[in-house]
Amino acid sequence: MVSPFAPSTRHLAWGRVHRCTHSVSRPRGVAEARAALAARGHRSLLPYGLGRSYGDCCLNPDGLLLETRGLDRLLSFDAERGIVHCEAGVSLADLLVTVVGRPAPDGGVWFLPVTPGTRFVTVGGAIANDVHGKNHETAGSFGHHLIDLLLLRSDGTIVRCAHDENADLFRATIGGLGLTGLILEARLQLVSVPSLWLENEDLRFEDLEGFFRLAEDSRGWTYTVAWIDCLARGRSLGRGIFSRARHLNDRRPPPPAPRPPRVTVPFDPPISPLNPLTLRLFNTLFYHRLGRRGRRVGVMPFDRVLYPLDGLAEWNRLYGPRGFFQYQCVVPPDGAFSTIARLLETIARTKQGSFLAVLKTLGDRPAPGLLSFPMHGVTLALDFPNRGQPTLALMDALDDIVLAAGGRLYPAKDGRVPAQVFRAGYPLWKRFAELKDPAFSSAFWRRVGEEETAPATERPA
Ligand SMILES: Cc1cc2nc3c(=O)[nH]c(=O)nc-3n(C[C@H](O)[C@H](O)[C@H](O)COP(=O)(O)OP(=O)(O)OC[C@H]3O[C@@H](n4cnc5c(N)ncnc54)[C@H](O)[C@@H]3O)c2cc1C
Predict the structure, then answer these.
(1) Mean per-residue pLDDT over the chain, rounded
(2) For residue 347, is pLDDT > 60?
(3) CATH number for 374
(4) Which of 210, 439, 448, 452 has the most neighbouring CB atoms within 10 Å?
(5) Residue 318, in any domain of the structure
(6) 301 shares its domain with 436
(7) Strand order of the sheet with strand 223-228?
(8) In a domain, 134, yes or no
Protein backbone atom coordinates (compact mmCIF):
# COMPACT_ATOMS: atom_id res chain seq x y z
CA MET A 1 0.00 0.00 0.00
CA VAL A 2 1.27 3.49 -0.81
CA SER A 3 1.79 5.51 2.38
CA PRO A 4 -0.59 8.48 2.69
CA PHE A 5 2.07 10.39 4.63
CA ALA A 6 4.85 12.37 3.02
CA PRO A 7 8.29 11.71 4.57
CA SER A 8 9.81 14.91 5.91
CA THR A 9 13.19 15.97 7.25
CA ARG A 10 11.85 19.46 7.93
CA HIS A 11 10.70 18.89 11.51
CA LEU A 12 13.48 19.88 13.88
CA ALA A 13 13.66 20.71 17.54
CA TRP A 14 14.76 24.22 18.52
CA GLY A 15 18.36 23.19 19.24
CA ARG A 16 18.75 21.79 15.66
CA VAL A 17 21.15 19.04 16.83
CA HIS A 18 19.03 16.02 15.93
CA ARG A 19 18.19 15.47 12.27
CA CYS A 20 15.75 12.70 11.37
CA THR A 21 13.02 11.66 8.97
CA HIS A 22 9.35 11.55 9.94
CA SER A 23 6.09 10.75 8.29
CA VAL A 24 3.82 13.73 8.89
CA SER A 25 0.09 14.24 9.11
CA ARG A 26 -1.56 17.62 9.73
CA PRO A 27 -5.12 16.85 10.86
CA ARG A 28 -7.64 19.70 10.78
CA GLY A 29 -10.09 18.10 13.18
CA VAL A 30 -11.09 14.90 14.94
CA ALA A 31 -12.11 13.04 11.78
CA GLU A 32 -8.76 13.68 10.08
CA ALA A 33 -6.84 12.85 13.26
CA ARG A 34 -8.71 9.54 13.57
CA ALA A 35 -8.03 8.80 9.88
CA ALA A 36 -4.31 9.40 10.47
CA LEU A 37 -4.34 6.98 13.42
CA ALA A 38 -6.08 4.35 11.31
CA ALA A 39 -3.58 4.71 8.46
CA ARG A 40 -0.45 4.79 10.64
CA GLY A 41 0.47 1.13 9.98
CA HIS A 42 3.30 0.09 12.28
CA ARG A 43 4.49 3.65 12.90
CA SER A 44 4.55 5.08 16.41
CA LEU A 45 2.81 8.43 16.96
CA LEU A 46 3.81 11.77 18.44
CA PRO A 47 2.11 15.19 18.43
CA TYR A 48 4.23 18.13 17.21
CA GLY A 49 3.32 21.73 18.03
CA LEU A 50 5.63 24.56 17.02
CA GLY A 51 8.87 22.66 17.68
CA ARG A 52 9.99 25.09 20.40
CA SER A 53 11.32 22.23 22.54
CA TYR A 54 15.08 22.25 22.32
CA GLY A 55 15.89 18.53 22.28
CA ASP A 56 14.16 15.36 21.25
CA CYS A 57 10.87 15.24 23.18
CA CYS A 58 9.12 16.55 20.04
CA LEU A 59 10.90 14.14 17.65
CA ASN A 60 9.91 10.62 16.70
CA PRO A 61 12.46 9.31 14.14
CA ASP A 62 10.83 7.06 11.52
CA GLY A 63 7.48 7.48 13.26
CA LEU A 64 4.40 9.57 12.47
CA LEU A 65 4.26 13.17 13.66
CA LEU A 66 0.78 14.56 14.21
CA GLU A 67 1.41 18.22 13.48
CA THR A 68 -1.20 20.17 15.42
CA ARG A 69 -1.24 23.58 13.76
CA GLY A 70 -4.36 22.56 11.84
CA LEU A 71 -6.22 22.33 15.18
CA ASP A 72 -6.33 26.10 15.41
CA ARG A 73 -9.87 27.12 16.35
CA LEU A 74 -10.75 29.29 19.31
CA LEU A 75 -13.97 27.56 20.38
CA SER A 76 -15.31 30.02 22.97
CA PHE A 77 -14.33 32.70 25.45
CA ASP A 78 -16.27 33.33 28.64
CA ALA A 79 -15.45 37.00 29.29
CA GLU A 80 -17.20 36.97 32.70
CA ARG A 81 -15.05 34.14 34.09
CA GLY A 82 -11.97 34.44 31.88
CA ILE A 83 -12.21 30.88 30.54
CA VAL A 84 -10.77 30.14 27.09
CA HIS A 85 -11.82 27.00 25.25
CA CYS A 86 -9.64 26.27 22.22
CA GLU A 87 -8.14 23.56 20.08
CA ALA A 88 -4.68 22.44 21.10
CA GLY A 89 -2.85 23.85 18.08
CA VAL A 90 -3.80 27.42 19.00
CA SER A 91 -0.65 29.26 20.03
CA LEU A 92 -0.13 31.60 22.95
CA ALA A 93 0.62 34.27 20.31
CA ASP A 94 -2.91 33.65 18.93
CA LEU A 95 -4.43 34.03 22.42
CA LEU A 96 -2.53 37.27 22.97
CA VAL A 97 -4.30 38.89 20.01
CA THR A 98 -7.74 37.35 20.53
CA VAL A 99 -8.60 37.16 24.23
CA VAL A 100 -5.78 38.73 26.24
CA GLY A 101 -6.57 42.34 27.12
CA ARG A 102 -10.35 41.87 27.03
CA PRO A 103 -12.02 43.56 30.06
CA ALA A 104 -12.54 41.51 33.21
CA PRO A 105 -15.50 42.21 35.54
CA ASP A 106 -13.20 43.50 38.34
CA GLY A 107 -12.00 46.40 36.15
CA GLY A 108 -8.78 44.67 35.10
CA VAL A 109 -8.02 42.84 31.86
CA TRP A 110 -7.62 39.13 31.16
CA PHE A 111 -4.08 37.81 30.81
CA LEU A 112 -2.24 34.50 30.42
CA PRO A 113 -1.76 32.97 33.89
CA VAL A 114 1.61 31.46 32.90
CA THR A 115 3.74 31.93 29.81
CA PRO A 116 7.18 30.64 28.83
CA GLY A 117 9.87 32.94 27.40
CA THR A 118 8.42 32.71 23.89
CA ARG A 119 4.83 33.21 22.77
CA PHE A 120 5.30 30.89 19.79
CA VAL A 121 4.21 27.71 21.54
CA THR A 122 0.90 25.87 21.18
CA VAL A 123 -1.53 25.26 24.01
CA GLY A 124 -0.97 21.50 23.52
CA GLY A 125 2.81 21.94 23.76
CA ALA A 126 2.45 24.15 26.86
CA ILE A 127 0.38 21.43 28.55
CA ALA A 128 2.62 18.55 27.44
CA ASN A 129 5.71 20.21 28.94
CA ASP A 130 3.76 21.84 31.79
CA VAL A 131 5.67 25.02 31.03
CA HIS A 132 6.54 27.60 33.65
CA GLY A 133 7.22 31.31 33.43
CA LYS A 134 8.93 34.10 35.30
CA ASN A 135 6.01 34.10 37.77
CA HIS A 136 6.34 30.49 38.93
CA GLU A 137 6.69 31.51 42.58
CA THR A 138 3.18 32.97 42.67
CA ALA A 139 1.40 31.29 39.75
CA GLY A 140 2.82 27.77 39.54
CA SER A 141 2.97 26.18 36.09
CA PHE A 142 0.64 26.02 33.06
CA GLY A 143 -1.11 22.87 34.30
CA HIS A 144 -2.27 24.63 37.46
CA HIS A 145 -4.60 26.75 35.32
CA LEU A 146 -5.96 24.02 33.11
CA ILE A 147 -9.62 23.18 33.69
CA ASP A 148 -9.92 20.16 31.43
CA LEU A 149 -8.83 18.69 28.12
CA LEU A 150 -9.96 16.24 25.44
CA LEU A 151 -7.48 13.51 24.62
CA LEU A 152 -7.56 11.31 21.52
CA ARG A 153 -6.04 7.90 22.29
CA SER A 154 -4.52 5.68 19.62
CA ASP A 155 -7.55 3.34 19.67
CA GLY A 156 -9.68 6.25 18.45
CA THR A 157 -11.45 6.94 21.77
CA ILE A 158 -11.77 10.49 23.04
CA VAL A 159 -11.37 10.93 26.78
CA ARG A 160 -12.27 14.01 28.81
CA CYS A 161 -9.69 14.55 31.55
CA ALA A 162 -10.03 16.90 34.50
CA HIS A 163 -9.40 16.92 38.25
CA ASP A 164 -12.71 15.10 38.77
CA GLU A 165 -12.76 12.88 35.67
CA ASN A 166 -9.97 10.51 34.58
CA ALA A 167 -7.83 12.36 37.09
CA ASP A 168 -4.89 9.96 36.72
CA LEU A 169 -4.74 10.49 32.98
CA PHE A 170 -5.09 14.26 33.54
CA ARG A 171 -2.03 14.24 35.81
CA ALA A 172 -0.13 12.08 33.33
CA THR A 173 -0.99 14.34 30.36
CA ILE A 174 0.12 17.55 32.12
CA GLY A 175 3.86 17.39 31.51
CA GLY A 176 3.24 14.08 29.70
CA LEU A 177 5.48 14.93 26.72
CA GLY A 178 2.80 14.03 24.17
CA LEU A 179 2.94 10.37 25.17
CA THR A 180 -0.57 9.88 26.56
CA GLY A 181 -2.36 10.75 23.30
CA LEU A 182 -3.19 13.74 21.14
CA ILE A 183 -4.71 16.65 23.07
CA LEU A 184 -7.51 17.94 20.86
CA GLU A 185 -8.98 20.73 22.99
CA ALA A 186 -8.40 22.40 26.33
CA ARG A 187 -10.07 24.91 28.64
CA LEU A 188 -7.79 27.35 30.40
CA GLN A 189 -8.46 29.80 33.23
CA LEU A 190 -7.00 33.26 32.55
CA VAL A 191 -6.10 35.76 35.30
CA SER A 192 -7.21 39.35 35.70
CA VAL A 193 -4.38 41.91 35.86
CA PRO A 194 -4.58 45.69 36.29
CA SER A 195 -2.97 46.42 32.91
CA LEU A 196 -0.82 45.07 30.09
CA TRP A 197 2.00 47.47 31.00
CA LEU A 198 4.75 46.22 33.25
CA GLU A 199 6.75 48.27 35.69
CA ASN A 200 10.23 46.76 35.57
CA GLU A 201 13.66 47.06 37.18
CA ASP A 202 17.03 45.67 36.10
CA LEU A 203 19.68 45.47 38.83
CA ARG A 204 23.30 44.44 38.51
CA PHE A 205 24.65 42.04 41.17
CA GLU A 206 28.30 41.27 41.74
CA ASP A 207 28.26 37.63 42.76
CA LEU A 208 26.01 34.66 43.46
CA GLU A 209 25.17 35.91 46.93
CA GLY A 210 23.84 39.05 45.27
CA PHE A 211 21.42 36.91 43.25
CA PHE A 212 20.05 35.14 46.32
CA ARG A 213 19.70 38.47 48.18
CA LEU A 214 17.75 40.05 45.33
CA ALA A 215 15.55 36.97 44.91
CA GLU A 216 14.66 37.26 48.61
CA ASP A 217 14.02 41.03 48.35
CA SER A 218 11.77 40.66 45.29
CA ARG A 219 8.83 38.86 46.87
CA GLY A 220 6.45 41.71 45.97
CA TRP A 221 7.27 41.39 42.26
CA THR A 222 5.30 39.10 39.95
CA TYR A 223 8.00 38.22 37.41
CA THR A 224 11.64 37.62 38.31
CA VAL A 225 14.60 36.20 36.41
CA ALA A 226 18.36 36.76 36.26
CA TRP A 227 20.97 36.61 33.53
CA ILE A 228 24.34 35.23 34.70
CA ASP A 229 27.78 35.90 33.26
CA CYS A 230 28.84 32.25 33.23
CA LEU A 231 32.43 33.05 32.29
CA ALA A 232 33.02 34.97 35.53
CA ARG A 233 35.12 33.17 38.15
CA GLY A 234 36.59 33.72 41.61
CA ARG A 235 34.96 36.54 43.54
CA SER A 236 32.77 37.43 40.54
CA LEU A 237 31.36 33.92 40.20
CA GLY A 238 27.63 34.16 39.55
CA ARG A 239 27.57 37.89 38.79
CA GLY A 240 24.77 39.09 36.54
CA ILE A 241 21.66 41.18 36.08
CA PHE A 242 18.45 40.61 38.00
CA SER A 243 15.18 41.63 36.32
CA ARG A 244 11.88 41.99 38.10
CA ALA A 245 8.52 43.24 36.89
CA ARG A 246 4.86 43.58 37.86
CA HIS A 247 1.69 44.76 36.18
CA LEU A 248 1.31 48.51 36.42
CA ASN A 249 -1.63 49.55 38.51
CA ASP A 250 -2.92 52.45 36.46
CA ARG A 251 -5.40 52.79 33.66
CA ARG A 252 -3.25 54.04 30.78
CA PRO A 253 -4.40 52.95 27.29
CA PRO A 254 -3.27 49.40 26.43
CA PRO A 255 0.02 48.96 24.57
CA PRO A 256 -0.13 47.86 20.92
CA ALA A 257 -0.52 44.10 20.36
CA PRO A 258 2.83 42.27 20.08
CA ARG A 259 4.23 42.66 16.58
CA PRO A 260 5.59 39.78 14.51
CA PRO A 261 9.39 39.55 14.73
CA ARG A 262 10.95 42.37 12.75
CA VAL A 263 14.19 40.57 11.92
CA THR A 264 14.81 36.96 10.85
CA VAL A 265 18.00 34.94 10.62
CA PRO A 266 17.38 33.86 7.00
CA PHE A 267 19.84 30.96 6.69
CA ASP A 268 22.26 28.77 8.68
CA PRO A 269 25.61 30.58 8.76
CA PRO A 270 28.30 28.02 7.78
CA ILE A 271 30.36 29.13 10.80
CA SER A 272 28.62 30.22 13.95
CA PRO A 273 29.25 33.86 14.94
CA LEU A 274 28.75 32.70 18.54
CA ASN A 275 32.29 31.71 19.52
CA PRO A 276 34.43 32.06 22.68
CA LEU A 277 35.63 35.52 21.60
CA THR A 278 32.18 36.97 20.89
CA LEU A 279 30.88 35.28 24.05
CA ARG A 280 33.45 37.02 26.24
CA LEU A 281 32.75 40.35 24.54
CA PHE A 282 28.98 39.90 24.83
CA ASN A 283 29.11 38.91 28.50
CA THR A 284 31.31 41.87 29.45
CA LEU A 285 29.17 44.39 27.56
CA PHE A 286 25.92 42.90 28.83
CA TYR A 287 27.09 42.87 32.43
CA HIS A 288 28.08 46.55 32.24
CA ARG A 289 25.08 47.71 30.22
CA LEU A 290 23.37 49.34 33.21
CA GLY A 291 26.11 51.96 33.52
CA ARG A 292 27.68 53.12 36.75
CA ARG A 293 24.47 53.03 38.77
CA GLY A 294 23.93 49.38 37.95
CA ARG A 295 20.16 49.90 37.96
CA ARG A 296 17.52 50.79 35.39
CA VAL A 297 13.79 51.26 35.95
CA GLY A 298 11.05 51.61 33.37
CA VAL A 299 7.56 50.85 32.16
CA MET A 300 7.21 48.57 29.15
CA PRO A 301 4.56 46.64 27.22
CA PHE A 302 4.39 43.10 28.64
CA ASP A 303 5.82 41.46 25.50
CA ARG A 304 9.08 43.44 25.71
CA VAL A 305 9.66 42.04 29.20
CA LEU A 306 8.28 38.52 28.85
CA TYR A 307 9.42 37.68 25.30
CA PRO A 308 12.73 39.46 24.65
CA LEU A 309 13.92 36.71 22.28
CA ASP A 310 10.81 36.80 20.10
CA GLY A 311 12.05 39.97 18.36
CA LEU A 312 14.56 37.93 16.32
CA ALA A 313 12.92 35.08 14.42
CA GLU A 314 14.88 31.84 14.03
CA TRP A 315 17.72 33.06 16.27
CA ASN A 316 18.53 29.39 16.89
CA ARG A 317 20.22 29.32 13.45
CA LEU A 318 22.99 31.54 14.83
CA TYR A 319 24.53 28.44 16.38
CA GLY A 320 25.44 27.19 12.92
CA PRO A 321 24.91 23.81 11.26
CA ARG A 322 25.73 21.69 14.36
CA GLY A 323 23.13 23.40 16.50
CA PHE A 324 23.21 23.74 20.27
CA PHE A 325 22.08 22.05 23.47
CA GLN A 326 20.14 23.67 26.20
CA TYR A 327 20.77 22.41 29.72
CA GLN A 328 18.14 23.27 32.32
CA CYS A 329 18.12 21.85 35.81
CA VAL A 330 16.37 22.62 39.07
CA VAL A 331 17.86 21.96 42.49
CA PRO A 332 16.12 22.07 45.90
CA PRO A 333 16.42 25.22 48.04
CA ASP A 334 18.55 23.57 50.73
CA GLY A 335 22.13 23.75 49.54
CA ALA A 336 21.11 25.58 46.33
CA PHE A 337 23.83 28.21 46.78
CA SER A 338 26.69 25.71 46.85
CA THR A 339 25.17 23.54 44.10
CA ILE A 340 24.72 26.47 41.71
CA ALA A 341 28.25 27.66 42.58
CA ARG A 342 29.64 24.21 41.69
CA LEU A 343 27.72 24.15 38.41
CA LEU A 344 28.99 27.60 37.45
CA GLU A 345 32.58 26.77 38.46
CA THR A 346 32.47 23.61 36.33
CA ILE A 347 31.19 25.56 33.31
CA ALA A 348 33.66 28.44 33.74
CA ARG A 349 36.56 25.96 34.05
CA THR A 350 35.75 24.37 30.69
CA LYS A 351 35.33 27.83 29.06
CA GLN A 352 32.28 26.43 27.23
CA GLY A 353 30.17 29.38 28.29
CA SER A 354 26.66 30.22 27.30
CA PHE A 355 25.23 33.51 25.96
CA LEU A 356 21.91 32.84 27.59
CA ALA A 357 22.47 31.71 31.14
CA VAL A 358 19.36 32.15 33.22
CA LEU A 359 18.92 31.70 36.95
CA LYS A 360 15.56 31.78 38.67
CA THR A 361 13.82 30.66 41.84
CA LEU A 362 10.78 28.37 41.59
CA GLY A 363 7.92 28.35 44.11
CA ASP A 364 6.69 25.54 46.33
CA ARG A 365 3.29 24.71 44.79
CA PRO A 366 3.02 20.94 44.34
CA ALA A 367 3.42 20.04 40.65
CA PRO A 368 0.19 19.27 38.74
CA GLY A 369 1.71 16.57 36.50
CA LEU A 370 3.44 13.25 37.17
CA LEU A 371 6.43 14.41 35.09
CA SER A 372 6.17 18.17 35.66
CA PHE A 373 9.63 19.71 35.75
CA PRO A 374 9.11 22.62 38.15
CA MET A 375 9.77 21.96 41.82
CA HIS A 376 10.64 24.21 44.74
CA GLY A 377 14.19 25.48 44.34
CA VAL A 378 16.47 27.25 41.92
CA THR A 379 16.62 26.60 38.19
CA LEU A 380 19.62 27.25 35.95
CA ALA A 381 19.29 27.19 32.14
CA LEU A 382 22.19 27.45 29.71
CA ASP A 383 22.74 27.18 25.95
CA PHE A 384 25.88 25.32 24.83
CA PRO A 385 27.01 25.34 21.20
CA ASN A 386 27.30 21.71 20.09
CA ARG A 387 31.02 20.92 19.99
CA GLY A 388 30.43 17.17 20.15
CA GLN A 389 32.18 15.11 22.83
CA PRO A 390 33.50 17.99 25.00
CA THR A 391 30.00 19.45 25.25
CA LEU A 392 28.47 16.06 26.11
CA ALA A 393 31.19 15.48 28.71
CA LEU A 394 30.50 18.86 30.31
CA MET A 395 26.78 18.11 30.58
CA ASP A 396 27.53 14.67 32.07
CA ALA A 397 29.63 16.40 34.74
CA LEU A 398 26.79 18.83 35.44
CA ASP A 399 24.37 15.87 35.75
CA ASP A 400 26.47 14.44 38.60
CA ILE A 401 26.24 17.69 40.54
CA VAL A 402 22.49 18.04 39.94
CA LEU A 403 21.75 14.44 40.95
CA ALA A 404 23.88 14.65 44.10
CA ALA A 405 21.83 17.70 45.11
CA GLY A 406 18.50 15.91 44.55
CA GLY A 407 17.62 17.92 41.46
CA ARG A 408 16.39 17.10 37.97
CA LEU A 409 16.59 18.12 34.31
CA TYR A 410 13.88 19.65 32.11
CA PRO A 411 12.79 17.25 29.30
CA ALA A 412 11.60 20.20 27.14
CA LYS A 413 15.20 21.37 26.94
CA ASP A 414 16.98 18.05 26.84
CA GLY A 415 18.46 16.08 23.95
CA ARG A 416 20.87 13.67 25.68
CA VAL A 417 20.06 12.92 29.31
CA PRO A 418 20.81 9.25 30.15
CA ALA A 419 17.94 7.07 31.44
CA GLN A 420 19.31 6.74 34.97
CA VAL A 421 19.62 10.51 35.40
CA PHE A 422 16.06 11.08 34.17
CA ARG A 423 14.64 8.32 36.36
CA ALA A 424 16.40 9.54 39.50
CA GLY A 425 14.91 12.99 39.00
CA TYR A 426 11.38 11.77 38.23
CA PRO A 427 10.47 9.06 40.75
CA LEU A 428 6.89 8.84 39.35
CA TRP A 429 8.12 7.84 35.88
CA LYS A 430 6.96 4.22 36.29
CA ARG A 431 3.44 5.28 37.22
CA PHE A 432 3.54 7.53 34.16
CA ALA A 433 4.70 4.64 31.94
CA GLU A 434 1.58 2.66 32.96
CA LEU A 435 -0.69 5.50 31.82
CA LYS A 436 1.17 6.31 28.61
CA ASP A 437 -0.53 5.37 25.32
CA PRO A 438 1.40 2.34 24.01
CA ALA A 439 1.31 3.60 20.40
CA PHE A 440 2.86 6.98 21.25
CA SER A 441 6.62 7.37 21.44
CA SER A 442 9.46 9.83 20.98
CA ALA A 443 13.23 9.80 20.68
CA PHE A 444 13.34 11.16 24.23
CA TRP A 445 11.15 8.39 25.63
CA ARG A 446 12.97 5.62 23.80
CA ARG A 447 16.14 6.81 25.51
CA VAL A 448 14.86 7.37 29.04
CA GLY A 449 11.65 5.43 29.53
CA GLU A 450 11.87 2.10 27.80
CA GLU A 451 13.13 -0.98 29.57
CA GLU A 452 16.85 -1.68 29.85
CA THR A 453 16.58 -4.27 27.08
CA ALA A 454 15.67 -1.55 24.55
CA PRO A 455 18.56 -0.61 22.26
CA ALA A 456 20.24 2.57 23.48
CA THR A 457 19.62 5.60 21.28
CA GLU A 458 22.77 6.89 19.67
CA ARG A 459 24.21 10.00 21.28
CA PRO A 460 24.14 13.03 18.99
CA ALA A 461 27.50 13.84 17.39
C1 LIG B 1 12.98 30.99 23.22
C2 LIG B 1 12.34 29.94 24.07
C3 LIG B 1 12.03 30.23 25.39
C4 LIG B 1 11.44 29.25 26.19
N5 LIG B 1 11.17 29.57 27.49
C6 LIG B 1 10.59 28.65 28.30
C7 LIG B 1 10.25 28.98 29.64
O8 LIG B 1 10.49 30.09 30.11
N9 LIG B 1 9.64 28.02 30.39
C10 LIG B 1 9.33 26.79 29.88
O11 LIG B 1 8.75 25.99 30.61
N12 LIG B 1 9.63 26.45 28.61
C13 LIG B 1 10.25 27.36 27.82
N14 LIG B 1 10.55 27.04 26.52
C15 LIG B 1 10.21 25.69 26.02
C16 LIG B 1 8.81 25.66 25.41
O17 LIG B 1 7.90 26.44 26.15
C18 LIG B 1 8.29 24.21 25.41
O19 LIG B 1 9.22 23.37 24.80
C20 LIG B 1 6.92 24.06 24.75
O21 LIG B 1 6.41 22.80 25.10
C22 LIG B 1 6.99 24.17 23.23
O23 LIG B 1 5.68 24.09 22.70
P24 LIG B 1 5.43 23.68 21.19
O25 LIG B 1 4.02 24.02 20.85
O26 LIG B 1 6.48 24.25 20.32
O27 LIG B 1 5.55 22.11 21.29
P28 LIG B 1 6.64 21.12 20.64
O29 LIG B 1 7.98 21.59 21.02
O30 LIG B 1 6.34 20.91 19.21
O31 LIG B 1 6.28 19.79 21.45
C32 LIG B 1 6.57 19.74 22.83
C33 LIG B 1 5.92 18.50 23.44
O34 LIG B 1 4.52 18.68 23.44
C35 LIG B 1 3.89 17.58 22.82
N36 LIG B 1 2.67 18.11 22.21
C37 LIG B 1 2.55 19.16 21.37
N38 LIG B 1 1.27 19.33 21.03
C39 LIG B 1 0.55 18.37 21.66
C40 LIG B 1 -0.82 17.99 21.66
N41 LIG B 1 -1.75 18.65 20.97
N42 LIG B 1 -1.18 16.91 22.38
C43 LIG B 1 -0.26 16.23 23.13
N44 LIG B 1 1.03 16.53 23.15
C45 LIG B 1 1.44 17.60 22.43
C46 LIG B 1 4.91 17.04 21.85
O47 LIG B 1 4.70 15.68 21.55
C48 LIG B 1 6.20 17.25 22.62
O49 LIG B 1 6.42 16.18 23.52
C50 LIG B 1 11.13 27.98 25.67
C51 LIG B 1 11.43 27.69 24.33
C52 LIG B 1 12.03 28.66 23.54
C53 LIG B 1 12.36 28.33 22.11
Answers:
(1) 94
(2) yes
(3) 3.30.465.10
(4) 448
(5) yes
(6) no
(7) 295-301, 197-205, 240-247, 223-228, 357-362, 377-385, 324-331, 408-409
(8) yes
Inform me whether the pLDDT recorded for 454 exceeds 50.
no
Ligand 1 mutation pick, 131, 146, 413, 445, max ligand atoms within 8 A of CB: 131
pLDDT in tens, 4-48: 787 888 899 999 999 999 999 999 999 999 999 999 999 999 999
The verdict on residue 309 lying in a domain is yes
Domain containing 318 equals 69-422
Q: Is the CB of 195 under 6 A from ligand 1?
A: no
| pLDDT (tens digit per residue) in 239-266 | 999 999 999 998 789 998 898 887 888 7
* Closest ligand 1 atom, residue 50 Cα: 26
- Residue 84 inside a domain? The answer is yes
Which residue among 17, 48, 414 has the greatest number of ligand 1 atoms within 8 angstroms of its CB, and so is best to mutate? 48
Ligand 1 atom having least distance to the Cα of 310: 1
Q: Assess whether 239 and 341 both reside in one domain.
A: yes
The bridge status of strand 312-313 relative to strand 263-264 is: parallel
Which pLDDT belongs to residue 260?
86
Domain at 47, CATH number: 3.30.43
What pLDDT score was predicted for residue 461?
A: 61
Nearest-Å Rg of the Cα atoms of the chain is: 21
CB-CB contact of 328 with 54 (8 Å):
no
Q: Are residues 200 and 60 in the same domain?
A: no
Q: Domain count of the chain?
A: 2
Task: Name every residue whose Cβ is closer than 8 Å to that of residue 285 and which is 6 or more positions away in sequence.
Answer: none
The predicted model scores a pTM of: 0.96
Same domain? For 165 and 293 the reply is yes
The string of pLDDT tens digits covering residues 389-434 is: 999 999 999 999 999 999 999 999 999 999 999 999 999 999 999 9
Mutate to test the pocket of ligand 1, among 52, 173, 265 (most ligand atoms within 8 A of CB): 52
Residues 80 and 100 in one domain: yes
d(CA 118, ligand 1 centre) in Å: 10
- What is the per-residue pLDDT across 297-310, written as a single tens digit (0 to 9) for each? 999 999 999 999 99
Tell how far the Cα of 443 is from the centroid of ligand 1, in angstroms.
15
Cβ(129) – ligand 1 distance below 6 Å:
yes
For residue 412, report the distance from its CA to the centre of ligand 1, in Å. Answer: 6
Residues 6+ apart with CB under 8 A from 425: 402, 403, 407, 408, 409
Cβ atoms of 401 and 203 closer than 8 Å: no
How far CA 294 is from CA of 96, 206, 288, in Å, comes to 33, 10, 8
Which pLDDT does position 301 carry in this prediction?
Answer: 97
